[in-house]
Amino acid sequence: MTDTAAPATSRSIVTEIPGPKSRALLERKAAAVAQGIPHQLPVFIAEAHDAIITDVDGNRFIDLGCGIGVTTIGHTNDEVVAAVREQVGLLTHSLFGTTPYEPYVRVAELLAELTPGDHAKKSFFVNSGSEAVENGVKIARRATGRRAVAVVEHGYHGRTNLTMTMNFKPAPYATGMGPLASDIFHAPGSYPLRDGLDGAAAAKRTQWYLEKHVGAADLACLVIEPIQGEGGFIVPADGYLPLMQEWCTANGVVMIADEVQSGVCRTGTTFASEQFGWVPDMVLSAKGIAGGMPIAGVTGRAEIMDAVHTGGIGGTFGGNPVSCAAAVAVLEQVTSKDLNAQARRVEAVLRPLLEELAASRPEIAEVRGKGAMLAIELVDPETGEPIPTGPISAAAGLEGVLVLTAGTDYNVLRFLPSLAITDEQLREAIEVIGRALSAR
Ligand SMILES: *Cc1c(COP(=O)(O)O)cnc(C)c1O
């Protein structure tokens, strides 16, 4: 595949992987960077545009990962780059809590419009998804005066002390790094492939668990990803989320949608909650919201958000002006470029390709997800044991396709392509993955 003449819109492997420049950088990394920071593909990236990333040796990869769902709008999106360039020369930092600036307010206004529900909403901004979850919990506790926090099995919420306690899996996120936070309860959720329950039955099971094991009167919030990301793109049964919201409302519990991975046009609606008819009390956004710039939003019912006293929330870098400008550039394209239609186009091309693959490969137990957030789960049809997807992802990487793994049992391949990916790039990428699966 030494195809140097190919246009920069296709993959092109021109050296062994890793190439000589990446190998030299990997040595420097090993010497200088903490080993707790891994890498999935052993190459260093020099530049990227839309769905193609180029490494320091000139190899080009089709990116089905988007830095874990961050560059949803495409790498170096023109509008984002222009907005960042302009803002960085005007104001790089002033701390919104001392001397405010307009782009922060504009992002809050856009999120009030774009998040589910037409109730009054307010937002504030932090630097990462984990921090958004932390703050969502703080605000819910302040608003309710209650201590307990509920999450569901297979969830992932981050790497801070509170959020690593909220994760379903301690490994690798919390191993040996306790003590963990208190008052966090992991309830059963909805995982149709494994539990076989419909939405009503799954909701009843969750509610029973919370009532008996936690006590609704002590519960401040229930935090759920509408489609679970790290857990393996688990789509809850229809009805589950709205029934849980009804139960939360009836019991004075704040129900929080962790849309850090599923939000901002990833699934074909601006927020994935909409796909289930769920209007959450609070919506957390991060990853895809600013085309690669670090910012995370906490958006909630105005009365819940305003329950926190002045000075009770904030942070030095949160809602940085350059990140806000990037977020405005992304959120304005939601309607101007009809990004949700792009996510549905990705699904219209990708889902049939995956289903075709599944028809010939009995180890694909399920094709699931929505929009540009699709996955396959691999299970040995004879033993029922999960099949690890790491080797398949590694093999695809050598052929110029970056695809991420997921799943509590590491047996899911997740597809999180940019909305700028072309139909042709999708077809080519799945061809490579099909070969990697056959060679397994
Ligand atoms: C990635 C992720 C987080 C944590 O976000 P960071 O920016 O890595 O701190 C939280 N929740 C979900 C659903 C995520 O996918």
TrEMBL record:
<comment type="similarity">
    <text>Belongs to the class-III pyridoxal-phosphate-dependent aminotransferase family.</text>
</comment>
<keyword id="KW-0808">Transferase</keyword>
<keyword id="KW-0032">Aminotransferase</keyword>
<dbReference type="InterPro" id="IPR050103">
    <property type="entry name" value="Class-III_PLP-dep_AT"/>
</dbReference>
<protein>
    <submittedName>
        <fullName>Aspartate aminotransferase family protein</fullName>
    </submittedName>
</protein>
<dbReference type="InterPro" id="IPR015424">
    <property type="entry name" value="PyrdxlP-dep_Trfase"/>
</dbReference>
<dbReference type="InterPro" id="IPR005814">
    <property type="entry name" value="Aminotrans_3"/>
</dbReference>
<dbReference type="Pfam" id="PF00202">
    <property type="entry name" value="Aminotran_3"/>
</dbReference>
<dbReference type="InterPro" id="IPR015421">
    <property type="entry name" value="PyrdxlP-dep_Trfase_major"/>
</dbReference>
<dbReference type="InterPro" id="IPR049704">
    <property type="entry name" value="Aminotrans_3_PPA_site"/>
</dbReference>
<keyword id="KW-0663">Pyridoxal phosphate</keyword>
<dbReference type="GO" id="GO:0008483">
    <property type="term" value="F:transaminase activity"/>
</dbReference>
<dbReference type="InterPro" id="IPR015422">
    <property type="entry name" value="PyrdxlP-dep_Trfase_small"/>
</dbReference>
